[in-house]
């Protein structure tokens, strides 16, 4: 038996008989025979692989109906899969037989069988097997079981990565060397193995791989599995690989964005520094440097805001995300940077440029002028829109709200008498009450002016009592319209922070505001936004910063 080593070209029946005869090579005689035939078997497998590539899976199965039995038996022979590139060639044959778009139950069952064989070849429990035959074979090679399979996986990955990269740069010859169906099959075979650290180079190579077709060639199962593993921190990928994943698979980007929102809602965050770190770790602000990703994430945030009735928590998250996105965008190399219009294609570009100017980029003395400029542009746009155009009104409101730092500075400058009050009050009234149905915004403006005028009379008083502020507190408690209540709370909170007399009453007054009203969460989010701004600028006096931190500590226990 050991003498017969002459094999006719693609003598399928001969090798099927041999595979049946060998079994799993459990006897000394069969082991010797396998070893003598391994070079010829490897050549046969290579020819078989080329034949499958040429004919396609359907024709191949028609010509060789027992091909599954042959490959299945060889995959379970430890001497065969341990020899040179035989395991790689077996896997390539299986990948070519895989149906990327199964048409019937038979093809579905065949795909399942192929996946199980591929999984066995790389991560079967027999890696750690104590079976005498496998252990003896591996020991004879000078490896421990773990080392042997570790090297085997690495070599397989290197080989596939090299092949894919070479094909990627073959230009028009790509169809000749690697078919889309085969790349799809390779991505499928990666699915059960995605969390293997040694597989990462192959995952990234696949994510960067683009064939000649506009149709996605990677399996959706593969893209979903990679995204899921990344979100659960089971694998580590380069930023560019993650961005490529989200650009080519919209469901993964949507899931990543919703995952971030769930994460932020489910944990207790005591500062916007923590919020910013969680958002930054998600890689979404960095990925949003690509306009397509930015616009999709932005739409998801809009929907989340509408579904939660514009809660301050969601708005604060959006503002931090926008701030981090701008940082990432400004850090981009000029040759890679997209113009702002690519991110905000349907908005008034002069308003976009004004809002994107970060406060620290301007001298404090110019803030007043800049705020009036923003307010005038917003008012002109709003008054130019037909009253029934709620979508257009919402888009303007959302754009302004994304850059909420300017709104907080507007309230601060208003109380410090550093701006023209009418323009800035109108901007704040629009933010808290964008619709003017039944004169809601007009009424909000009247209420805001009354609160503002009352607070300005008290701003310079060093000796204040709670009674002096009772009128403002009662307004917050008694106002039925939520927008009026939130704007009044905003003005009163900043009065307590920035006026000399307000510091003494801040904690007691804050207790009254948050104890009997829903304004507590609004005030809390306002304070953590302000703390975030102070920490980044470092310009505010230490007394105000200390008071702010004390108020936050007390509110953290209540909100």
UniProtKB/TrEMBL annotation:
<dbReference type="InterPro" id="IPR000686">
    <property type="entry name" value="FANCC"/>
</dbReference>
<comment type="function">
    <text>DNA repair protein that may operate in a postreplication repair or a cell cycle checkpoint function. May be implicated in interstrand DNA cross-link repair and in the maintenance of normal chromosome stability. Upon IFNG induction, may facilitate STAT1 activation by recruiting STAT1 to IFNGR1.</text>
</comment>
<protein>
    <recommendedName>
        <fullName>Fanconi anemia group C protein homolog</fullName>
    </recommendedName>
</protein>
<keyword id="KW-0227">DNA damage</keyword>
<keyword id="KW-0234">DNA repair</keyword>
<keyword id="KW-0963">Cytoplasm</keyword>
<dbReference type="Pfam" id="PF02106">
    <property type="entry name" value="Fanconi_C"/>
</dbReference>
<dbReference type="GO" id="GO:0036297">
    <property type="term" value="P:interstrand cross-link repair"/>
</dbReference>
<dbReference type="GO" id="GO:0006289">
    <property type="term" value="P:nucleotide-excision repair"/>
</dbReference>
<comment type="subunit">
    <text>Belongs to the multisubunit FA complex composed of FANCA, FANCB, FANCC, FANCE, FANCF, FANCG, FANCL/PHF9 and FANCM. This complex may also include HSP70.</text>
</comment>
<keyword id="KW-0539">Nucleus</keyword>
<dbReference type="GO" id="GO:0043240">
    <property type="term" value="C:Fanconi anaemia nuclear complex"/>
</dbReference>
<dbReference type="GO" id="GO:0034599">
    <property type="term" value="P:cellular response to oxidative stress"/>
</dbReference>
